[in-house]
Write a structure and sequence with these properties.
Helices cover 6% and strands 41% of the residues. By secondary structure, it is mainly β. Strands 3, 4, 6, 7 and 8 form a five-stranded antiparallel β-sheet that branches. Strands 31-9-34-33-32 form a five-stranded antiparallel β-sheet. A five-stranded antiparallel β-sheet has the order 22-26-25-24-23.
Length: 420
């Protein structure tokens, strides 16, 4: 009987190898982190795992990886000849393998070609959520929605559904709705403004773990995942290897290594202010929006009425634009009072910025420093909800903004708006 069982095991292993359907899944082996950086058609792919000595196997055609697919040895370049391609990877430890990591690499073409036409993708009744933040994977929009829920919007149809998740380590259930959100295709990452932590949620299992030491009072401490402290974290983005968090009340930008969970401060002195500089020599005032092009971070520095950039490799902070660039475009009030940047996204050439109280969407050309109003108007000083092109459109309180590479999507208190 033992011989028969052994032969059966070998047969199962051989079949799984040939079919790339390994049966030996071990959920305690961390899925690899995949980073894709590049522009145009050429991207550099790097992978890492927190399991010491575990080899990573991958595919670049969306297929299931296994022990006989390509072995990752060092960063490599790929050429995206179609609109996108999907890279899947697993880490293997003694014939056991991790859950599959997945990332979609997209052809990064020219800047968005937008007319400023605004339509309503999802009405307020269907889009009503507790968060003002949104992210996309190119096909769907995702926004936190109450306690351990994510609202999912199909971009093509506008259909709304709810995805739930579980964090078995959390004991608090009060005031714990998610705030900011990003995804790398394997996990969702959600900040909790009130609990001062970040949830890392497996897309495949719906199980979440926490980054940060949960506390209603918050704090400021770098270090290991379980020891680090945040105070009112809001916006979050990722380059596939690290997370970058606008730690708003601490007035700093935090960096989290995805594989290890280690938290550090990339920029900001923790005391607040308005200073360009390097690392902790720079200062922010209530940073609340964040975006990346893979080399730089772009920050909506709300309290300073400014847009700041951070070189990701060095932590060098510079000011790109402020109220003198945008503040009086709408034609009312003082410059400072009419430019309160909240959401920010980029197509690699331009930044697109929401001004919640200005109720306008701005376009800022990174190379030239020229800012224009793309959509909305505050000329009459009133909020509204009207679809239309450019100044014909109106917003109630636009907050976060994202792009799928073709269009912009804006979280507005009157629903989710699409800009073409």
């Amino acid at each position: 009987m033992k011989k028969v069982a052994f032969v059966g095991l070998i047969a199962t292993l051989l079949v799984s190898l040939i079919a790339c359907s390994d049966p030996f899944l071990a959920t305690d082996i961390e899925a690899p982190a995949i980073s894709a950086k590049g522009s145009g058609a050429v991207h550099t792919i790097s992978m890492s795992t927190s399991t010491p000595g575990a080899p990573i196997h991958y595919t670049t055609n969306g297929a299931q990886p296994c022990m006989i697919t390509k072995l990752y040895e060092s960063p490599f370049t790929i050429e995206v000849l179609s609109e996108s391609l999907t890279i899947n990877a697993i880490a293997i430890d003694n014939l056991l393998h991790s859950p599959v990591s997945s990332t979609t690499v997209r052809f990064v073409g020219p800047a968005l070609n937008l007319s400023g036409k605004v339509t309503t993708l999802v009405a307020a009744s269907a889009a009503s959520v507790s968060s003002s933040y949104v992210t996309t994977d190119g096909a769907k929009l995702y926004t936190p929605d109450g306690y351990q829920k994510i609202r999912v919007i199909d971009i093509a149809t506008g259909t709304v559904s709810i995805s739930t998740y579980t964090n078995e380590n959390r004991t608090e259930t009060v005031l714990s709705s998610g705030t900011g959100i990003t995804t790398d295709g394997t996990y969702y990452y959600i900040t909790h403004y009130n609990l001062n932590v970040i949830d890392k949620i497996s897309i495949s299992t719906g199980i979440a773990t926490m980054i940060g030491n949960s506390s209603m009072r918050g704090g400021y401490k770098d270090g290991a995942s379980a020891d680090a402290k945040f105070r009112m974290p809001t916006a979050i983005t990722t380059d596939g290897t690290n997370l970058y968090v606008a730690d708003s009340s601490n007035a700093v930008i935090r960096k989290i290594e995805i594989a290890s969970g280690v938290v550090s401060t990339l920029a900001g002195n923790g005391a607040g202010g308005y200073i360009d500089g390097t690392g902790t020599g720079a200062a922010f005032s209530w940073p609340i929006g964040i975006a990346t092009d893979g080399s730089n971070l772009y920050i909506a520095d709300n309290g300073n009425h400014a847009i700041r950039s951070i070189v990701m490799n060095t932590g060098v902070v510079t000011t790109l634009a402020d109220y003198s660039t945008f503040g009086k475009m709408g034609g009312i009030g003082t410059a400072a009072s009419s430019f309160w940047p909240v959401g920010i996204t980029t197509d690699g050439s331009n930044l697109y910025i929401t001004s919640e109280w200005g109720r306008e969407i701005y376009k800022f050309a990174i190379a030239t420093g020229v800012g224009t109003i793309l959509a909305g108007s505050q000329a009459d000083g009133h909020a509204g909800h009207a679809d239309g092109t450019g100044a014909e459109a109106s917003f109630q309180y636009p907050s976060d903004i994202t792009t799928d590479g073709d269009y912009l999507y804006v979280m507005d208190s009157n629903g989710i708006r699409k800009i073409q």
